[in-house]
Amino acid sequence: MAVCWWLLIHCVLVTSSSAHNDFFTSIGQMTDLLFTEKDLVTSLKDYIRAEENKLEQIKRWADKLDVLSVAATQDPEGFLGHPVNAFKLMKRLNTEWGELESLVLTDMSDVFISNLTIQRQHFPNDDDQTGAAKALMRLQDTYQLDTNTISTGELPDATHQRANGNLKYFEYQLAKQKKVEEEEGAEGRQKREAKGQHDDYLPERKKYEKLCRGEGIRMTPRRQSRLFCRYYDNNRHPRYVIGPVKQEDEWDRPLIVRFHNIVSDKELEKVKELAKPRLRRATVHDPQTGKLTTAHYRVSKSAWLGAYEHPVVDTINQRIEDITGLDVTTAEDLQVANYGVGGQYEPHFDFGRKDEPDAFEELGTGNRIATWLLYMSDVQAGGATVFTDVRAAVWPKKGTAVFWYNLYPSGEGDYRTRHAACPVLVGNKWVSNKWIHERGQEFRRRCGLQETD
Fold first, then answer.
1. Could you identify which of 178, 337, 396, 426 might form a hypothetical disulfide with 302, taking C-beta atoms 3.0 to 4.6 angstroms apart as the criterion?
2. Which residues belong to any copy of the Fe2OG dioxygenase domain (predicted)?
3. What is the pLDDT of residue 13?
């Protein structure tokens, strides 16, 4: 029986390892772990109560026999001279002590251990703990936080109930992780060089981190005066003549615009509900192979939603087409992303470049001409979208969407659109992307969404 039990545990742990799903890369999915832990605490309390009840029964038995034995041993012959006392002694030793033995040997932990074994399938593993530790280091570096700030939870707009007890532990984990990274330093440099990340990687990284902190943004008062807010109807589109949308210029060159109140809270919650069960570790296109792969510089999970899957998705797609004037039938499905602990996506281009394999060849719809980025949640601190080449920053605001063209009218890539998602310092960041492709746009004008001289 014991062999079968340990075999079961082994099988569950193996299943747990193979089914592991990078918990640290999605705050949305990590919330499930809180409820898993809550269920375990309830099960643990049930076990404690069962043990207490068992000990209480044993204690009552011991107290009763203690009084009896004290009285009996004062005059053993006189005590046993009473036939009932003699019978009860025989009965206790023959029957009741055996019952007590069974009670003492009863394992009250069976239910708790069974529940724990099952729930372990949903536990994080060493990779998650390492990923979360690296995230803390990333937040510390990007936002220039000291160790005490993180350990005490004194982050912008954040509260933390367990403060001082974290300091020594965090310092220990930080030193441990830095030691590992120092040992892997040479190997890491070789890998970066293999991916084309040479000496210019660190300068851009510094620029990226400064923008994430709101520093070094190239917006002069004169340029700011040329940015406007307006009511936008996309050249008197029938859907928006009476109720135009609110449009705000976020940047001039390249033109980056934000549309306000573009999706309702109810629609956003439905999209999250559809996406959450299907979230998987986000991937990137490997510039060497053109294939999709996971990367340390993209910490999030994503899911793809087709227009046919729910009317809300179809409605959002149609809204994007009506507002941008671009054909979305050749666009990629709506990608929904949820960022993890310190979630980020380092500087990258959305369009495919000439010096890399055609990442979109299989789609047969050309390059990504434009990006529609919908913010599906507010973020308390961090999480900005920054454009490293032009030093611009756009901050998340729930229910708004930002839009920009990745390609010039000639079809050449606009390298000014290189952008990144800053690490989330505090909060839970949800976004969705619609990447619109070239095919189908041949006879469409860039109404109101292109740069002016």
1. 337
2. 330-438
3. 41
* Sheet strand arrangement including 430-437: 229-232, 245-251, 256-260, 401-405, 368-375, 430-437, 334-339, 300-305, 280-281
User: Does residue 451 lie within any of the structural domains?
Assistant: no
Residues 258 and 399 in one domain: yes
pLDDT at 442 over 90: no
What is the count of structural domains for the chain?
2
Which of 95, 121, 147 is the endpoint of a domain? 121
How far is residue 137 from each of residues 40, 123, 127, 155, 322, measured CA to CA in Å? 30, 23, 15, 14, 43
Backbone angles phi, psi at 395, to 5 degrees: -105, 145
Same domain? 115 vs 217: no
Q: Same structural domain for residues 271 and 417? A: yes
* pLDDT(18) > 50: no
CATH number at residue 404: 2.60.120.620
Residue 20 above 70 pLDDT?
no
Q: Is residue 139 part of a domain?
A: no
In a domain, 9, yes or no: no
The answer as to whether 147 is a domain residue is no
Most confident by average pLDDT, 47-51, 352-356, 359-363: 47-51
- 269 within 8 A of 376, measured Cβ to Cβ: no
Position 288 scores a pLDDT of: 66
- Do the Cβ atoms of 7 and 114 come closer than 8 Å? no
pLDDT, tens digit, 9 for 90 and up, residues 334-356: 999 999 888 889 999 999 988 77
- State how far the Cα of 33 lies from the Cα of 36, in Å rounded to an integer: 5
CB 340 within 8 A of CB 30: yes
Residue range of the domain that includes 112: 23-121
